[in-house]
Each structure stands twice: as C-alpha cells, then as structure tokens.
Amino acid sequence: MFSVISINELERMIKAGEDLVFIDLRRAGEYEAFHFPGAVNIPYQLLNQERLMPYRGSLLVFGCEHGGKSMRAARDLNRRGFRTASLGCGIPTRKPD
C-alpha cells in the first residue's frame, strides 16, 4: 500500500535523512520554473519501471501539478513492488515565500 503525504511530511522525512527520491512528474518547463532541491524530473508520459530501477531500494515520492498523476504513479508502481508515496497536494508552481 502506498501513502499520501503532505509537503510538511516530505520536509520532515528529508530532514530526518530518510532514504527517499522525489520524482517530479511535471513537464520539463514546469520543473525548471520551480522544483524541490534534489528532485528527479521524469515527466509522467515518460515514466516506466526501467527508469526507476536505479532508485529501487528507496522510497519513491511522486509529485505532479495537482496530485492525480502522482497518485496513479504511486499506486501502479507500488503494485509492481516499489515502495511509494504521493505528494497529495501537488507541487507549487513557484517557490513558496
């Protein structure tokens, strides 16, 4: 089962040094406008199991514009044996103040 997490939970996990990889599912232009430090950009249309194999042992946290694609990615890849979570609220389009 995958979990749905908030931005605050994600920040807590990162500060605690948890073994996770944040996968930003938005298009390259959206990613370049703003992304979380350390995020890996794999647009949803290009997402496949092979691209994620280097991160197989880590918790994969998916994020997208509003949360729908990240939920689908987390669910589908969890069914394939990956440890996954979804950022439920979506990714801000610009750096928060």
TrEMBL record:
It comes from the Bacteria. Pfam families: Rhodanese. Residues 16-96 form the Rhodanese domain. InterPro entries: Rhodanese-like_dom, Rhodanese-like_dom_sf. This is Rhodanese-like domain-containing protein. It comes from Candidatus Caccovicinus merdipullorum.
